[in-house]
Every structure is written in C-alpha cells, then in structure tokens.
Design a protein that fits this description.
Elements: E1 5-14, E2 21-26, E3 42-51, E4 58-60, E5 67-69, H1 95-120
Antiparallel strand pairs: 1-2, 1-3, 3-4, 3-5
Keywords: Membrane, Transmembrane, Transmembrane helix
InterPro entries: FN3_sf (IPR036116), Ig-like_fold (IPR013783)
Protein name: Fibronectin type III domain-containing protein 3B
Length: about 120
C-alpha cells in the first residue's frame, strides 16, 4: 500500500441540475471552483481513490456527506459622511442575550408578585 497514489474526486450539484458532475480529479487536496452563480444553492461531495502501484486498478471509497453552500454577493461599501446621513442600526440579539432577558423578566415578575402577596397577607 505504500507508494500508492491517492486521487481525490470532487463533484458538484448546483442550480437546477439533478445529478452531480465531476469538477476535479487529482492528487491536490485544495481546489478552487470558478464560474459559480450568485445566490444559487450548491452541494459538494468528495471521494478518494487509491491507484495501486503494481496494477492500473483504482480502489475508490464511498462519497463523503454532501456539504451545502450558496455564494452571496458582497455588499459594496461606499464612503459616506455619517454626520450628514442618518443611520438606523438594527442589532439582532443572540440566543444568550435573549435568554438573559427572559430570566431577568421572570425574576422581576416573581419578586413583584411576592411583594404584592406580602402586602396582602
């Protein structure tokens, strides 16, 4: 097994295609894929073949789990004087921040209810 060449095969499924197409076959572990369309869903999968040194036979493994990605066009930034243009920054809460708000809200509500019960009793 030592001295056998390892060959990687990369396949892509994209857009409205119904079958994977082979885009790379070679010994390199890095490959750049060009000519992709913006805002299109793609799936990639790879498998490995071992070319035996004593024969021309290739022993291929199974496909990797497919990986999904969708290239997005980067929004170009313009240099604008922020003093003259009003900006509205919309920040999204992380899950941890949202959970903290809920915990603080429930704790405050229970303290308020305990205070009301203390006044009544």
């Amino acid at each position: 097994m030592r001295g056998d060449r390892i060959i990687y095969v990369l396949q892509v499924l994209g857009g409205r295609e119904s079958e994977y197409r082979q885009v790379y076959k070679g010994e390199d572990t890095v490959f750049q894929l060009f000519g992709l369309q913006w805002n299109t869903d793609y799936r990639l999968r790879v498998f490995v073949c071992r070319r035996c040194a004593d024969t021309t036979q290739e022993l291929c493994g199974s496909f990797s789990p497919s990986t999904h990605f969708s290239p997005r066009r980067a929004v170009s930034s313009l240099s604008v004087d922020t003093g003259s243009v009003p900006t509205s920054s919309s920040k999204k809460l992380t899950d941890e921040q949202f959970a903290s708000i809920i915990v603080v809200g429930v704790a405050s509500l229970s303290i308020f209810i305990a205070y009301l019960l203390q006044l009544l009793i």
